[in-house]
């Protein structure tokens, strides 16, 4: 095992959505990133292929467990129970995290801001949770958050702003920089306080800036420079033996189409819809800049129009909603109204004054119990079947499951976008992507958009294709880099995969790969062989009851 110096033997720096195209552009533009440049220049680096789906809530557990979602059990931001849902949390993760494996071998860890780590389990060390935790999360050990705030000042999981159009880019960037500094300050304090063998700090703003400031390269540059500054401060203060930088996925511009899965399924007779009433919405968020969508979850999750901006009062809103429900039953849905308003150039004006509850009331919605199949969340990259005996009101008999699934695969496999190109790189049974005890919780049909340049949408519209909902979104290739003790800086990283990060980190600490892991030790460090680690003790799932978390995910287009 490496000899311990003044800091952790291994430091893992997580950069959400970091990838070579982004860093190359930053370097070419002269961005002030001396510490990231030194790590890449002095060590080994290359693309890191992400999993399907390449999204934060599922990908980070894959990275820190070394297993596919079929084993660890998190497939997106939402956990589905029948037709109901809840935001995922650490109790959904059914495999041991790196720091828990290290604890079983007598090593300690400090973990700061890693997504899907709330509520934390006990281990030797300290953990401050990251994304999908509430803003005042339970930490480990108990009372740690209060201690951190007393030591460094303010600490927040999320920036203060909501991500809406009322916040300027300048204000957003200032908030990003503040939270980035909080991550660095917290990690340095806890590293000094606990003297861990392993450190893991994650920076989320490198992803968020693309969703909230699309196309603004100056904002991206400001975020990365702030992150680089904190990496440098951590390296100076902690002096780790080995440094590994890894991301959960990449990010880039989307130049393809929205591919509306529920529209395709509806037109083929697999998805039933309802007009008017509360119905069963498809959980695509109603975005500020977008007049039309499928609806949202609970109406309390939405930011209703403010009457001070000219919107109706409560009684008028209720009357308008009832009128819109009646119109929708007659076929005058808000999608159809929106198309007319768009042609007249009035959509942006109307959306500022019409209550979103009224739009939702008039929207054609997926009727989940009546449908054979549907897309629940674009982040899942797939389609779920409504199976008798599995879902509460399932309509697909179990003996017809394979036939219905194959019919959907056949429907989508040869689909082309309006420019004559394939819509998808792959349409497959879930078994092709997920393996393990939790695999049955995955989508039944996996849909991989072509080059992740097509945006999978759950929207119901008249046509199956449209402009991409978001101009920037996730790509398959992220980044890995490593430098320091025991690292072969000339090693090839060809074929490096997200699942390889955890076994590689174990090897840097002189520990064997877990035999349960799906990844392998990368060539940049000597493998210590393979062994069994203690299995995770069962614990009951805890529901996420935090509206602020749901709103934050909604603002970023994840719900």
Automatic annotation (TrEMBL):
InterPro entries: Alkaline_phosphatase_core_sf, Phosphodiest/P_Trfase
Origin superkingdom: Archaea
Annotated Basic and acidic residues bias: 533-553
Coiled coil regions in record: none
Disordered: annotated segments: 291-316, 533-559
SUPFAM superfamilies: Alkaline phosphatase-like
Ranges of Acidic residues composition bias in the record: 291-304
Protein name: Type I phosphodiesterase/nucleotide pyrophosphatase
UniProt source species: Halococcus salifodinae DSM 8989
Classification lineage: Archaea, Methanobacteriati, Methanobacteriota, Stenosarchaea group, Halobacteria
